[in-house]
Amino acid sequence: MKKIKIAVLGANGQLGQEFRYIHASYEYMSFDFFDKNALDITDPNAVKIALTTTVYDYVINCAAYTAVDKAENEQSLCFAINNLACINITDALHGLDTRLVHFSSDYVYHTYPGFPLQETDVTAPQGIYAQSKLQGEEHIRTTSIPALIIRTSWVVSVFGHNFVKTMIRLGKEKSEINVVNDQYGAPTNARHLAKVVLEIITQTETNSDLIQAFNDTYNFANEGIITWYDLAQYIMKQSLSNCKVFPIPTTAYPTPAKRPHWSVMSKKKINNAFQIDTPHWRQGIQEIMEELASKD
Ligand SMILES: NC(=O)c1ccc[n+]([C@@H]2O[C@H](COP(=O)([O-])OP(=O)(O)OC[C@H]3O[C@@H](n4cnc5c(N)ncnc54)[C@H](OP(=O)(O)O)[C@@H]3O)[C@@H](O)[C@H]2O)c1
Question: What are the tens digits of pLDDT across the range 181-219?
Fold first, then answer.
């Protein structure tokens, strides 16, 4: 059987590295990994050459500008990576038999309906990063390129910089810290997300009924609802740290970019469309902490 040919862009980010980590288990897929040095997605010519010299079955775009606060002062760079580069990618794929996987964010919603956010809910992005992510996904939906767009939240991983690693470090360095307790959501273990994407690709390749479902926008995060304070408490407890965690309101920790109060997303749509696992956030965090501890 012909292998499914996949390009992963932004391959040195948290999510990109998770695809690298798991890819060898999928022997019926073959991967080319492009980090920023190998392919700058803001360069239309480079994107065209990379995605047409080899024609891929799937392009997985993990590249993004994710410095949410810095984005307020680096608007053009943020829009270039999160929005204009989507145009470069879809232009390059035009006329090819390639499907696209792209990631967006819970930040596009920024509303508080009082129940888990659904993909049909109104979007009200606050801040440059959030607006750039929404523009990127909106552009992709206007094209004829079949694209799976996944809105995810609070991405954490053994790779890169993230909340879990910061809390483990602070747990060793500090006797007490303050963490916001009025932003609700769920962390997403990037490895779980990467596996879900490869599972969806597998199901789409083996069941033609799913080709239509692939070309849509979905939420995905680990199960459960917590605040950053709950997550910090859990990490301190699991790492046997004596660091005390105190809850504070968002107003006591002002940031240049507004954070959504409610990032709780419904996973019903993705779970109805595909057979996938949505592990609980505790499992996701435990797996990361165990792997990090084994490397210490
Ligand atoms: N992190 C979160 O909490 C979170 C939450 C919701 C949604 N998301 C979305 O999930 C996806 C994956 O996020 P992540 O956490 O894996 O992000 P990440 O760790 O910041 O990785 C993004 C990668 O993209 C690379 N990149 C930046 N500009 C590029 C360019 N012009 N060309 C090619 N590569 C470029 C970055 O390289 P450099 O580091 O060298 O710049 C980095 O390796 C993104 O779409 C993000 O918006 C993330």
Answer: 999 999 999 999 999 999 999 999 999 999 999 999 999
Task: Provide the domain count of the chain.
Answer: 1
Integer Cα distance of 176 and 181 in angstroms: 15
Strand-strand pairing, 184-185 and 226-227: antiparallel
Average pLDDT over residues 143-157: 98
Which residues span the domain enclosing 36?
Answer: 4-161+187-222+263-279
Residue 170: inside a domain, yes or no?
A: no
Specify if 168 maps to a domain.
no
- CATH code of residue 92: 3.40.50.720
pLDDT at 1 over 70: no
Angle at 180 between CA 290 and CA 266, to 5 degrees: 70
Q: Could you tell which of 8, 18, 36, 117 is best to mutate to test the pocket of ligand 1, judged by most ligand atoms within 8 Å of the CB?
A: 36
- The model's pLDDT over 100-113, given as tens digits with 9 standing for 90+, comes to 999 999 999 999 87
Task: Give me the catalytic one of 56, 65, 129, 234.
Answer: 129
Q: Could you tell me the pTM of the whole model?
A: 0.97
| Residue nearest ligand 1's atom 21 by CA | 13
109 is catalytic: no
Task: Give, in order, the Cα–Cα distances in Å from 103 to each of 14, 25, 106, 116, 247.
Answer: 12, 22, 10, 19, 31
- Output the residue whose Cα is nearest ligand 1's atom 37: 36
**Pocket around ligand 1: residues whose beta carbon is below 6 Å from it?**
10, 12-16, 36, 40-42, 62-66, 81, 103, 105, 133, 152-155, 160
The answer to whether residue 51 is domain-embedded is yes
